[in-house]
Write a structure and sequence with these properties.
The chain has 243 residues and is mainly alpha-helical. The chain has two domains: 136 residues, Helix Hairpins (Orthogonal Bundle); 70 residues, no CATH class. The chain contains five helices and four strands; from the N terminus they run αααββαββα. Strands 2-1-4-3 form a four-stranded mixed beta sheet. Strand 3 and strand 4 form a beta hairpin. The longest helix is centred in the middle third of the chain and has 84 residues. The mean pLDDT is 92.
Amino acid sequence: MNKYIKELVALSDIDKQLKSFDPQLEQIEKRISKEKKKIDELICENEKITSKIEDNTAKIKSYEEQIASINEQLKDLKRKSSEVTTEKEIKALEVEEEIAREKIKFANDEIEQLNKINDTKKALLQENEEKIQELQKELDEILAEAEKEKAEIDKQKTELFKKREEIIRDIDKKILAFYEKIRKWAGNTAIVPVRKQACYGCFLKINDKTYSDVLKGEEIVTCPHCGRIIYYDASYESGEEEA
């Protein structure tokens, strides 16, 4: 096999290995993101609960102010009742007092109901806070584990980058540029083997002349159908014959 083809195959293998780390890193980020999302959702829920408690507290204050105002009205009605003389005036004051007392009762009922709602929401708030603390512990563990995994991946990538640099240092720059150009659109399939006289990039059969050039392995050959660099996979063919 041509020296440059061997170098390209080796380079392609390294690029594939480097690319294979991407799904692992994505999975790590997904685990972290998933746990963060749980925490964020609870924090968001707590913000809504807190806002609702504040709204209810404001309503309670408003009802308390109404009660205070109505109590002042009742004092005023009591004062007026000692001054009226006619039955009609007395009746009117009694009706006004009854309405005032009904308003106080309604306001007290609403305050009681709002306080119950707030107590329930405060309990839920506390429950969520405890969940957040638990999830944060889990997230810290995941982050610690992720750091270890990333460190190991970085170590392996560093070793592969060193090997890649060694190959690039020796390879013909024009051939390297040609490979990189194909790699831009073909990705990890920039250079592929020929098996059963077919390109294993597009899986189409190549003509006899091209196949003959591939078998000779004297120069860089590209697939006439897809344009990928192709080479003869002797190990596959020998394995096939043995089978």
